[in-house]
Amino acid sequence: MESSSAELSVYLRYLGRYVPSLGFLRSGESSLSGTEQFPLSREPISAGIPGDLAALERKSQSCRACSLCETRTNVVFGEGSGKSGLMFVGEGPGADEDRTGRPFVGRAGELLTKMIQAMGLSREEVYIANTVKCRPPGNRVPSPEERAACFPFLEAQIRLLNPRYMILLGQTAAQVVLKQTEGITRIRGKSFEIGEFPRIRIMPTYHPAYLLRNPSAKKEVWADLQTVMGWMGRSFGQRTEGR
Ligand code: SF4
After folding, report:
1. pLDDT tens, position by position, 110-149
2. Rounded Cα distance, 108 and 113, in Å
3. Which terminus of the chain has fewer CB atoms gathered within 10 Å of its CB, N or C?
4. DSSP annotation of 33
């Protein structure tokens, strides 16, 4: 799961090119042309990001900015109204998601749905997305190049939705959004606010797929969810409408 220093270097240089606040990371990138990094696309996604979610989703449907386009069945853009102000970000689509075009619909998705319901919310009231929109073959972890290529979609989703709270599900989501390499075990349960997405309170926690393999970690995730519920002014069993 850990990135090699070479992979991380490519990822950071990509971010430096397309995330204005990280422009200082661009130094020394001259040996990596856009063609070398993204051989499947003439230009990066960020060259033409639409101003609304529906148009952004339409753009994603034909995206060929990384090699995951070669093996996908469906692009899994994301779903939900987000009217609660809460957004979840996972790693990437699995087989069920690739087949249906919807995020978190397999076994891990069923568990995420229960987590959302335990917070007194419905799936429709939150927004659910992933760091990459196309399934990595064999459910492998998306590479730094794939994460970087797809980041403009996630960044645009966050900016367009403007959630107040974000829960990052697993290490990949935490690395992509928080731009750090710390293991999820060390940072879960902590509150983050980052300059790139000001005024969003961010909580990393374990991915539901990890909970399926390690049920004993559910109590830690529940504690994290309760912390977010506290941020939202919610108590256990409470249902409220809107933000
Ligand atoms: S994973 Fe993202 S960047 Fe790669 S082809 Fe799919 S939509 Fe495009």
Report:
1. 999 999 999 999 999 999 999 999 999 999 999 999 999 9
2. 9
3. N
4. -
Query: DSSP characters for 110-136?
Result: HHHHHHHHHTT--GGGSEEEES-SSPP
Q: Is 11 exposed, middle or buried (0-12, 13-18, 19+ CB in 10 A)?
A: buried
In the chain the domains, ranked by start, together with CATH numbers, are 5-231 (3.40.470.10)
pLDDT over 50 (residue 243): no
Give the atom of ligand 1 at the shortest distance from the alpha carbon of 45.
Answer: 3
Tell me if residue 148 falls in helix, strand or coil: helix
**pTM for this prediction:** 0.82
Rounded CA-CA distance 3/144 in Å is 8
| Gap between the Cα atoms of 119 and 30, Å rounded | 48
Ligand 1 centroid – CA 200 distance (Å): 25
Helices then strands (H, E): number in the chain? 10, 4
pLDDT in tens, 199-215: 999 999 999 999 999 99
